[in-house]
Design brief:
Blueprint (H helix, E strand, L loop, with lengths): L7 H11 L10 H8 L3 E8 L2 E13 L2 E5 L10 E2 L7 H16 L7 E5 L8 H5 L3 E11 L4 H6 L3 H13 E5 L3 H14 L11 H12 L2 E8 L4 E9 L3 E9 L8 H16 L3 E3 L6 H8 L4 E11 L2 H10 L1
Parallel strand pairs: 3-5, 10-11
Antiparallel strand pairs: 1-2, 2-3, 2-4, 5-12, 6-11, 6-12, 7-8, 8-9, 9-10
Helix pairs in contact: 2-8, 6-9, 7-8
């Protein structure tokens, strides 16, 4: 196939294959093709034979409006750029501005755009110049290049107590049971009196299949000695990092320590796999943030952007407050 005739998705596939070991999982073509699967596209910058930047994006309906938003279970997207070697700092920034502008100009006309960028992205000026609002989000990341003893000692005391309790009463096992993952995930939202936010009824099935087929993560369950399933913890790996994506538990077992124990087991499994970092996926919900913080990770910030293009959507959002 002549490279000049390649579609943007085909260019993205080649880019992803070439730079697989450097990309976060959320910027891999296989993830978008197999897990996101539908309602996505990608902006691409480069020459016919060499792609230098990609930005995959997900679009959905928000009432009557079409919007670009974060894809389910896919944080940290945004532009990923390959820089020429030996650039001076000023030249690098200029290159960034030009490349990001070219990506922005490829985005379709939509009512609004909302994105969270990968942790290595740190230049939002081009977005500000294009009338995007920029803000900061937070996550916790844990350095796995330390001993198990150090990891344990950095856990908050109540987390250690919960792990010790669960070790006596529970059993962990790895199982790619997507319906059970979804059931426990939904249960967590029900406990919080919160609407289930996932609008794609098959995505957890595709996500679990992806982890299984690519051997790129773990789906860990905890059950008691009577066989009752207490909780689930789902992580996905890329070349360097493990990401906590899905957690859920049965309400009647919320005090079993299962959630803390599963997270600890995922940390140890990621370390054994050779991952250098465990990313907990931050939350703005205080109770969840406090739980995640208890595992000893370092607070890290990332860039978020938002742009409201539609006057009618702007009016609707004002009415909703």
């Amino acid at each position: 196939m002549n490279s000049i005739s390649l579609t943007n998705k085909e260019k993205f596939k080649r880019f992803s294959e070439k730079h697989r070991n450097n990309l976060p999982y959320s910027l891999h073509f296989d993830w978008w093709n197999e897990v996101i699967h539908k309602n996505w596209d990608v902006a691409v910058v480069g020459q016919p034979k060499q792609t230098i930047a990609v930005w995959p994006y997900f679009f959905r309906k928000k009432g009557p409006w079409k919007v670009i938003s974060s894809a389910y279970f896919t944080p940290y997207v945004g532009p990923y750029i390959i820089y020429p070697e030996d650039q001076k700092p000023s030249t690098k920034v200029s290159f960034e501005h030009k490349t990001i502008q070219a990506l922005i100009e490829q985005l379709p006309k939509v009512a609004s755009i909302e994105q969270k960028f990968h942790l290595n992205f740190n230049n939002g000026l081009s977005f500000q110049w294009n009338n995007f609002e920029e803000s900061i989000g937070y996550t916790y990341v844990l350095d796995l290049n330390q001993s198990k003893e150090n990891l344990w000692s950095n856990l908050r005391e109540n987390i250690r107590r919960q792990i010790k309790k669960a070790e006596k009463d529970l059993i962990t096992y790895n199982d790619f049971n997507a319906p059970l993952v979804e059931k426990l995930f939904q249960s967590t939202f029900a406990q919080q009196n919160t609407n289930y936010p996932i609008g794609d009824e098959k995505i957890i099935e595709r996500l679990v299949s992806f982890i299984n087929n690519h051997q790129s993560g773990n789906v860990l369950f905890a059950k008691d000695k009577k066989g009752n399933i207490n909780a689930v913890n789902t992580c996905v790996y890329d070349a360097e990092t493990a990401y906590y994506l899905i957690g859920g538990s049965e309400a009647k077992f919320k005090n079993s320590g299962a959630m803390s124990w599963l997270m600890w087991q995922q940390i140890l499994a990621a370390k054994e796999k050779g991952c250098m970092v465990f990313n907990f996926e931050g939350s703005s919900i205080p109770s969840i943030e406090r739980f995640i913080r208890g595992f000893g990770g370092e607070l890290k910030s990332y860039h978020q952007i938002y742009k409201l293009n539609s006057k009618s959507l702007k009016i609707a959002e004002r009415i909703r407050g």
